[in-house]
Every structure is written in structure tokens, then in C-alpha cells.
Amino acid sequence: MLDIDFVRAQFPAFSQPSLQGQAFFENAGGSYTCTQVIDRLTRFYTERKVQPYAPYEASRLGGAEMDEARTRLAALLGVETDELSFGPSTTQNTYVLAQAFRQFMTPGDAIIVTNQDHEANTGPWRRLADAGIEVREWCVDPETGHLDTDDLENLLDEHVRLVCFPHCSNVVGDINPVLEITALCHAAGAFVCVDGVSYAPHGFANVGDMGPDIYLFSSYKTYGPHQGIMVMRRTLGNLLPNQGHYFNAGTLYKRFTPAGPDHAQVAACAGMADYMDALGAQHGVGAQGVHDLMRDHEVRLLQPLLDAVKDRNSVRLIGPSDATVRAPTVALALNRSGEAVAAELAARGVMCGGGDFYAVRALEAMGVDMDKGVLRLSFVHYTSEAEVTKVIEALDAVL
Fold it and tell me: Which of 64, 106, 328, 369 could form a disulfide with 302 if both were Cys (CB 3.0 to 4.6 A apart)?
């Protein structure tokens, strides 16, 4: 079982007087930062804040720390070091990729997108229609929000070059079978782009084993600084046109990051690997064991919350009511504004949010009143059982 006291001791936020008595349930919008990341960021800004990769010591060490972050995160994700790159955000990384595919594809080619995604992994791809690319939509079930692989098979043919979908939705919470979907797409001759932003906080996935060609997530939601992290497998990366400086075309991790990286934040991302290693050492397990411990803890805490809301007359639970098949990101459509209810919960010491969470297409497809939006309660492995009890009691009081 996850040692929750050890976990929470790794996050300075839990010892801050200003945050005492408040339960944090907007983790899907960004997580607390672990001390390992904060320490590395502080060290970089105080000791290495120079242009990296020069021969003098401060510069050499700064570059080495940036390289360490790429090496260790790539290993954590089961890919080669140069297949992982950093960018200012997942949204901007996706825009750059869309421009590369705009040059790579020809009119008559097709891409498949979903309406379950955060707008970052659907909007940029849909704009390829301006270049004569056919955009096909893999649609959610309007009742459940689920993506059915049978529907995907009906969309796949020899014209499809790329399929984009989320590892899990930031409002539906449904975890999609990446391995199965990727195999279907590859068998049809299509590349695969997975938005892992809403899944990665719940356990780093072995991208190498799952097989997608692109995997994207955001480190500020995985206990780190504000960076977009992108896996681009070498086969596809060498096919797509270079989007970086022409003289960087031969370096895979620079081909799709046209802007210079934030040196300090890249280096600090190694702290996320430090934290995973610390969890592994504390529990005597490897990377997969850490992933499983995190998920098991979340599932155990999530089911009582789902049970508390799923049968309320005034509440529509978006997505499945079985904690084992979803992430602990719980969106609720209410008979009033989600944002207004979030404000009432804030007065009771619960930090959460209301609105559309950039998932307008998914919520509209499920018939949610967009004037009201949804209330979203999201947590991760550092959330305690007492905090889940607190949020259930607060919901009882305001709903």
C-alpha cells in the first residue's frame, strides 16, 4: 500500500500555513510541485543561470543537468533519449506538429480526431482541413462519453495518415486502451498521436511498450515545472519536415522545438525522476511498481466519491462509475453553474473548479448545458482518504 505520509512529505505545499485546512481537488489543472523539482530549479537559478554547454564549469553543469532530465525521463517512458523533447507547453508542441504534418500530407489524405479530447489535441489537427486534408471525427457515445474501437475501425482506411486521441479525457476520465488502438491504427498504415496530459499524473506510461508514434504530456501536471514534454519516435520524426533551425535538422529532439528551451525548467524536470526513484526506494519497487501503487491508491479513494455522486437526482456523473477504468478526474453536470458550486466548495475548504476545461466538444456531444458547464473534482496519489471524506461531506452540504 502507498505510504501516504511519505508521499505528502515530498510536497512542500502540504506544510504551508496558507494552505492548511484546504483540500486540493483541481489537480487536473496542475499539480503541486515536489521538493526534488523545487531544489533543482533553485540550484539552477542560483548556480547555473548561464548559457549552457560552454566549457566553463557553471555552463557545463547546466547543460549536463538538462541532458540528465532528457535521459532519465526517456528511460522512465521506455524510449530512446533523443526521442524525447521539451517545449513551452503541450498546446504549442501540438501546433508545431500540426504544421509539420501540413507539409508532410497531401490533399486527399485523411486524419482522425476525437471529440473526447482537450482542444489542444484536436483543434490544431482539424485546421489541416484548410490544406485539403480530410478530417474524420471519432465520436464519443453521447450518454457515456466512451470511445468505441468499433467506430474507429469504420473510419480507418488507406487514406488515413494520422489518428489523434487522448490516453484519457480531462472531463470523461475514461482510460482509453492505447496499446489496442495503436495496433489497429498501425495495421491500417496510420501513425498515432496520443495526448497523455490527463493520464500522466496518475503514473508515467511505458510509451515504448504501448507503441504510439507521438506521446504528449505536461510536466506541470506531473509534479514539475511548466513544460510540454513530447515523445517523437525516430521513424516518424525523420519522415516529418524539420520545424527547427535548419542547422538542427540532424538532431531529432530539436526538429520539433523551434524555440529555445527554458533551460532551468528543463533541468528541473529531472526532479520528477528523482521523485519516482524516491517512491520506488521507499516501497521497494521499480517504475512499474510505482505506477501500480499510485493507481491502486487512487482507485481505492475514487470509488467512494463516485458512489456518493452517481445516484443523486441533481447530478449527472460524466463518464464511468467504476473507479478501475477511469482516472480520478470527476466532472459533474449540475442543475446550476459548476463555477458557482466550486465557489461554495471553496468556502468549505475544497479547492476545485467549474467550467468547460477546454473540452467543449466533449461536453457538447454529451448534451451538457454549456451555460452551466461542469464541476470538476480531480485528485492524484498524494490526496489522502481524509480529504476525499472532506469533499464528499462538502458536496452533501452544497448539492
Answer: 328
